[in-house]
Amino acid sequence: MIFKAVLDGRPYPPHGLTQREWSQVAPQLVRLDELITTKRVLALDVVLDDDSTFYGDLFPHVVRWRGELYLEDGLHRALRAALQQRSTLHARVLDLDAEQAASTAEESAAHGEPERDSAS
Fold it and tell me: pTM of the prediction?
């Protein structure tokens, strides 16, 4: 199996990032077998097109939510990597888990609640 799972749609909340904001997310190496796709259908002509990233981001967009990695944009690039016998690819990973944890900590601080030590 190339991907961990295939979904039809995004199970995570909208993040609202623009293309410009995505470009500020540093690419990192991700394993294809850890990705869950959010699209069930792909266009074969796009997979075979050498210039498919000409107008878009060079790196696929991945969202980490509830410990899972969702391939939001870049299915064709990920499939091309798999067809080239690669098990990893560089992608921009937006970590919604970290953002949610930071938001929760900020709310606790605003309400005067002591921070909880995750080790205890």
Answer: 0.78
pLDDT tens per residue, range 73-105: 999 889 889 999 999 999 999 999 988 777 666
What does the CA dihedral 74, 75, 80, 86 come to, rounded to 10 degrees? 90
Residue 69 to residues 23, 44, 79, 91, 108, Cα–Cα distance (Å): 18, 24, 16, 11, 27
Cβ-contact 38, 71 below 8 angstroms: yes
- Return the closest-CA partner of residue 66 out of 98, 92, 38, 93: 98
How crowded is residue 45: how many other Cβ atoms within 10 Å of its Cβ?
Answer: 9
**Domains of the chain: residue spans and CATH:** 26-109 (3.90.1530.10)
Top pLDDT among 67 and 41 is at 67
Paired sense of beta strands 88-95 and 27-31, if any: antiparallel
Q: Which residue has the higher pLDDT, 17 or 109?
A: 17
Q: What is the spatial distance between Cα 90 and Cα 86, in angstroms, rounded to a whole number?
A: 11
